[in-house]
Each structure stands twice: as structure tokens, then as C-alpha cells.
DNA sequence: CGCACAAACGGAGGCGCCTCCGTTTAACTA
DNA sequence: TAGTTAAACGGAGGCGCCTCCGTTTGTGCG
């Protein structure tokens, strides 16, 4: 009988009054930090408080928790894809690739425990994900290709395999030395990639 | 970081003090009715109130909402399987079969909207389901077999197919005439079963 | 400017979740 | 029957969710 209701979609992005825009941006910023630090279960009232707005304002901008999560998720995905271009400009291709992979695992590390919310989103809005993941994949492929082009890494590898290997870090139990472990793994992969076949 | 915690399992069934046993039984009874009528989202405080116990008592017996749902779910599954035997004793095999199918459909109708809670349960406790469904399947097979034995229905049908057909009612949109529709469908299936090949 | 008014704000209030702990009571013993 | 005690009770209280609506404010217009 009572299945999940669609609710009204998040408000159209443009044509907001100046104060509304300001508050919305502030909320997004605070929420991103809060989710990263304390997980998606963070109290929305806390987020509103930290953003210096009333709880009503938060709910007007993001009618459900999932709407907010979606916006943050999307933003991070975009910034990750964008980082590829930026890194490619500032570093040699292989270094750019390695650094990007580190950021990638850092990103998915954040998403542990978010699994539930993400699943709900995936069902209700699967285009978002196709799109987001597509951007990530092509950003990654550009980096790999550039490094291969310069002869810095081998060219006979399947980028999908590589991405899968990185994603599998998701299932590593979280321990204090988590970051080191993942960096070692990435180092290992890079050595493999640099090895002449 | 913050994934779903296991919590302590539901308290062992036996060796309860008399009052505890009474309260537990009453809670189960009330909860079954409430879930059936208003869905799994029903307020637990309401259930406690209706059962005439404090909310603390409810939580002592069922540390999480899922624990309570599981107990109800299991109970209903058992009673459905048990009904097969009972019906078989009181009616001709084909009538017993038809009536049982109606009950089956009525049962799964209750579970709409419960999907979420059930999924959580399935992940955490999959043996429960294997067991429960196994009982249902064999109860159903007994009925079909008995009717076939007496020559009341054909014997060349696959019970799994039939059960699947019944389950598919799950995806029928809920409308006021839902029950009639499902009964008509069952009638149709029965006619098919009775038809000499 | 100053005005009008829709847009946006914000927080009180109602509800449900869950925990904690002082009080009650069933059950066992002498 | 009275006494003891561990088991069980229950509800107050703290927190978070979300809605509703009276108040404030940005914006466009004369």
C-alpha cells in the first residue's frame, strides 16, 4: 500500500532570489563536509544549523534527504572527473594517473555506509548514475591513454579491469591504516603498468 | 563507516517469566493486525499502546523494528503452510487447492510496501527465507498432488510455474477491485487445471 | 526613492524512535 | 505466609524528522 512516494523534484536551479541562492550554496557546502566527516546519517538539523539557516529552509531546497544526498553525490562525481583534466595539465601523464587513482579511492572510501541511500537513488534515478559513471570512466580513459601515448605505461591493458580493481577497495575492511594500504595497492598497479611487457 | 549494526539477536524463546510471555504474545498479535492493516510503517508506539504495554517492553522483546517484522513474517508463513493441511482435511482436494491459492494471494498482498524491510531481512538472515519458502512450496505441492491423484486436475503441470503465476499478482497495481481480479485469475487457473488435456 | 507583493525564511510543534533507569512483580525459598 | 531477588515493566526524556504558517526580505515598478 504505502510505497515510496516520488515527492516533488528538487527545485529548478536557476531563477532563484539572491538570498535563496546563497543559502542553497551554503547548505550544499556544509552538507558535503558533514557527509564526508560523519556519514550520510548526519542530522539534517545539524547541517541547517551549521549553515546558519532554519530547518525549514533546508527542507524547502531539498524536500527529502535523498535529494540532498543526490546533489552532493553528483557534485563530487563531477569534481572528480574535472580533476583529471587539471592533473593532466600539471603533471607528467603517469604521475597524473597515479594521483587521480588515489583521489578515486579516496572518493569511494567516503561512500562506505552510504550504500543504502545510494541504492534508493539508483532505483529512482538511474540516468544520473549512468551519466556520472560515464564521466568518470572517460576521464580515467583519457589519463590512461595519455600516459600510454607517451610510452610511460603499457598500452595493452583494459581500463575497465583497472577501474574494477580500484573499486574493489570498497570492500576492504576499514582499519586505521586504510589509506596506506590503498596507496600501496595503487603503487603496485602503477609498477605493473610501467613494466615493459 | 556506519553500516547497519547487527544488534543483539531476539531473546531466546523459552524460559520467560509468565508476564513476559503474555506481553510478548500480545505484542505479536497486535503487531500482526497492525502491519496487515496499516503496513510495516505503523508506529511502534501505537502497537505498544494497543497491546497495553510500555514502549520499553516492546523494545526489550524486539530490539529493532526488523526483529518484530521478522517474527510476524515467519508466523504468517507458517500459518499459511499449516492451512494447507487443514484445508485438505475439510474439503475435496481441488476446492482445498483453490482456497489455499486465494489465501496465498491474500498473504502476498499484505507484503506490498514491505519490500524494503524484507530486503534488509533477506540480507541479514537468508536461511529464514529459504526455510519459509520451502515450507510453502511443499505445502502447495502436496495440495496439487492430492488433487491430481483423485483425477480432479491434470497432472502434467509444473508447480513452480503455478506458484510463479500466483506470485505475479504481486505486481498488479492496487485498485479497489483488487481482490475480485485476483480471484478471477485463480478461477481461470483452476479451469485450466481441471480441463482434460 | 518608496511601494507592493511574491518569494523566501525560520522555528515551533507534533510525532516517532529509542534509551535509560527507578519501580513493580513473578518465582523461588525458608 | 513472608522475605528476597532477579527479571520485567513502563514511561519520561532526548533527539531527529518534517510540516505549517506567521514574518521578513529581495525585486521590479512607478
- Assembly level: homodimer
The CATH class label of the largest domain in chain A is: Mainly Alpha
Compute the number of strand runs of chain A: 0
Q: How many DSSP helices of chain A?
A: 9
Gyration radius of chain A (Cα, Å) is: 19 Å
Order of helices and strands of chain A: HHHHHHHHH
Provide mean pLDDT of chain A, rounded. Answer: 85
Structural class computed from helices and strand pairing of chain A: mainly alpha
CATH topology of the largest domain in chain A: Tetracycline Repressor, domain 2
Overall 3D form of chain A: elongated
Strand content of chain A: under 5%
End-to-end separation of chain A in angstroms reads: 60 Å
Task: Provide the number of structural domains of chain A.
Answer: 2
For this structure, what is the CATH homologous superfamily of the largest domain in chain A? Tetracycline Repressor, domain 2
Largest sheet of chain A: none
Query: Biggest interface: chains and residue counts?
Result: A-B, 11 and 11 residues
Q: Which residue ranges of chain A are poorly predicted, with pLDDT under 50 across at least 5 consecutive positions?
A: 1-5
Overall helicity of chain A: over 70%
Amino acid at each position: 500500500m504505502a510505497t515510496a512516494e516520488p515527492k516533488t523534484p528538487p527545485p529548478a536551479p536557476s531563477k532563484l532570489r539572491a538570498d535563496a541562492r546563497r543559502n542553497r550554496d551554503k547548505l550544499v557546502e556544509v552538507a558535503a563536509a558533514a557527509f564526508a566527516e560523519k556519514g550520510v546519517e548526519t542530522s539534517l538539523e545539524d547541517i541547517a544549523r551549521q549553515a546558519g539557516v532554519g530547518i525549514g529552509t533546508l527542507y524547502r531546497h531539498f524536500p527529502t534527504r535523498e535529494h540532498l544526498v543526490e546533489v552532493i553525490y553528483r557534485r563530487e562525481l563531477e569534481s572528480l572527473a574535472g580533476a583529471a583534466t587539471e592533473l593532466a595539465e600539471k603533471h607528467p601523464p603517469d604521475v597524473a594517473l597515479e594521483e587521480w587513482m588515489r583521489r578515486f579511492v579516496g572518493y569511494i572510501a567516503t561512500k562506505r555506509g552510504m550504500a543504502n541511500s545510494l541504492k534508493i537513488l539508483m532505483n529512482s534515478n538511474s540516468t544520473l548514475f549512468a551519466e556520472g559513471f560515464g564521466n568518470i570512466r572517460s576521464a580515467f580513459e583519457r589519463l590512461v591513454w595519455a600516459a600510454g601515448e607517451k610510452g610511460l605505461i603499457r598500452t595493452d591493458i583494459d581500463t575497465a579491469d583497472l577501474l574494477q580493481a580500484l573499486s574493489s577497495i570498497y570492500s576492504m575492511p576499514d582499519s586505521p591504516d586504510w589509506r596506506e594500504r590503498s596507496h600501496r595497492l595503487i603503487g603496485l598497479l602503477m609498477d605493473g603498468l610501467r613494466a615493459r611487457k
